[in-house]
Amino acid sequence: MTLPQSLLVIVLLIAASAFFSVSELSLAASRRLRLRQMADEGDARAARVLLMQEQPGDYFTVVQVGLNAVAILGGIVGEGSLSPYFTDLLALWLPAQQAQTLGFVASFLAVTSLFILFADLLPKRLGMVQPEAMAVRVVRPMQWCMRLLRPLIWLYSRAADALLRLSGLPSQRDERVTSDDILAMMEAGARSGVLAAREQQVIENLFELNSRSVVSSMSPRDRIAYFLRDDPDSVIRARIANEPFSTYPVCVADIDHVVGYVDAKDLFQRALNNQPISLAEDGLVRKVLIVPDRLSLAEVLEQFRQVHEDFAVIVNEYSLVVGVVTLNDVMSTVMGDLVGPADEEQIVRRDENSWLIDGITPIDDVLHALAIDELPHADEYETLAGFLMVMLRRVPRRTDSVTLSGYKFEVIDVDSYRIDQVLVTRVGQPHALAAEAMPAAAMGNSPAGQAAEVRS
User: Fold this and answer.
1) Which long-range contacts (CB under 8 A, 24 or more apart) does 67-76 make?
2) How does DSSP classify residue 116?
3) What letter does residue 435 receive in the DSSP assignment?
4) Are residues 301 and 353 in the same domain?
5) What total of structural domains would you count in the chain?
6) Name one GO molecular function term (predicted).
7) Is 154 in the same domain as 50?
8) Per the domain annotation, does 254 fall within a domain?
């Protein structure tokens, strides 16, 4: 062949190799969610790409046959067509034997460089940058190649399938989308500016509904305003004025014997109309939803949906009331600090290295605020107060503290054995657990006994 003919053949081979390279990478890198969106918008080529991704064996067989065939032909044509010209050029300055050797090397390097640059690097980068756009462009030509090379495809595909079965390796890609995949996409979207940081947090909170216990969002027992069934009108009116809530449990004898609940709107209507309020009146007290304290927030939402209620009383395994939860409580957990008045914040950041946290704050919220992945024995408590009790192995007192993961948790205020406020201070790099004001005998039996340091 003449030099122009050889160059034309090399260009065609490079183009063919580039086509197979971009076909291979674009199919592998294409996002199924994006392809489904394109198919729903009427792009039939996207539907073909989705089918190829479901059964990619024949597709990649064609790619490999094409790439290897082109590489072999490129080596033959390049060496045979360009070597004489490089040899003649170098013979002007070098002996014939050296010129022939260097001419072959120069021809090899020239053809290889052209293939690497134009048949490999550029097409694969293009396939990575715009995978869906390139995949829909090459899918129809690839289908033609699959029909043309069907005998070879059948032979190589069956051989590859047999080898995979013998080795115990999977032959199909797992296309299941997990919650971790979605959260990773949301994080990438937030970093690129597509999602606001608050929007990302809301989405993460939604996925946590299955893992967060209802206890983490409830109003605890000591903060429940309730009525007794036989409370007189004056007591009911005084409690409404002093403790204004939207819903009140109604009990018999004590809070652990809940018989229903009353809506504040019904009470206000009677009060405004100067009507007497009696909880023994039929129709005023409604049937209450009772849920166990081991349910997740997602399960509570499902129960709200089934019974068309937005209020529930939470009981433990001993049938004792531990708190109440409303639909608004669950939504507040999802929305985080996007809703709710500032004076009800459970976590207040004092400065760059310290936080003032309510003892009943859910431990998941504490982890988020402090950027801590996990705390020890996480299955034994739901709140910050519970964490301190587990670590100290007793009811904490004022000035008791626990140091862990670079933070010092110090009890600031205790009210009737209830931890009101905890001061959390950043103390440096994460280190071993240390508990202050802790008896040595208790430390020996504690879950963190071997890692803790006793300080008096």
Assistant:
1) 67/17, 67/20, 67/21, 67/24, 70/13, 70/16, 70/17, 70/20, 70/119, 71/17, 71/115, 73/13, 74/10, 74/13, 74/14, 74/17, 74/111, 74/115, 75/111
2) I
3) E
4) no
5) 4
6) flavin adenine dinucleotide binding
7) yes
8) yes
- Cβ–Cβ contacts within 10 Å for residue 388, how many? 23
Enclosing domain of residue 360: 341-455
Gyration radius of the chain's alpha carbons? 36
pTM for this prediction:
0.54
Give CB contacts under 8 A, 24+ apart, made by 98-107. Answer: 104/79, 106/82, 107/78, 107/79, 107/82, 107/83
Say yes or no: 309 and 411 in one domain: no
Q: Are 218 and 324 found together in one domain?
A: yes
Query: Strand, helix or coil at 389?
Result: helix
Read off the CATH number of the domain in which 416 is found: 3.30.465.10
CA nearest neighbour of 325 among 307, 345, 309, 341: 309
> Quick one: what percent of the chain has pLDDT higher than 70?
84
Residue 310 falls inside a structural domain: yes
Nearest to 328 by CA among 217, 179, 449: 217
Alpha-carbon span 1 to 244, nearest angstrom:
96
Last residue of a domain, one of 336, 360, 394: 336
Where among 336, 355, 381 does a domain terminate?
336
Q: Are strands 321-326 and 418-426 parallel, antiparallel or unpaired?
A: unpaired
- Asked whether residue 315 is domain-assigned, the answer is yes
CB neighbourhood size of 168 (10 A)? 6
With H, G, I as helix, E, B as strand and everything else as coil, classify residue 354.
Answer: strand
Please check whether residues 293 and 349 belong to one and the same domain: no
Are 415 and 330 within one domain? Answer: no
Whether 296 and 326 share a structural domain: yes
CA 378 to mean position of chain CA atoms: 19
Flag whether 174 is in a domain. no
Per-residue pLDDT, 48: 85
pLDDT-based confidence at 87, cuts 50/70/90?
low
Give the pairing of strands 434-436 and 418-426. Answer: unpaired
What per-residue confidence (pLDDT) applies to 164?
A: 75
Q: Are residues 122 and 265 in the same domain?
A: no
| Cα gap 97→91, rounded to integer Å | 9
**Calpha distance 224→324 (Å, rounded):** 7
**pLDDT single digits (tens) 413-455:** 888 778 888 999 988 654 444 444 444 334 434 444 333 333 3
Could you report how far apart the first and last alpha carbons of the chain are, in Å? 93
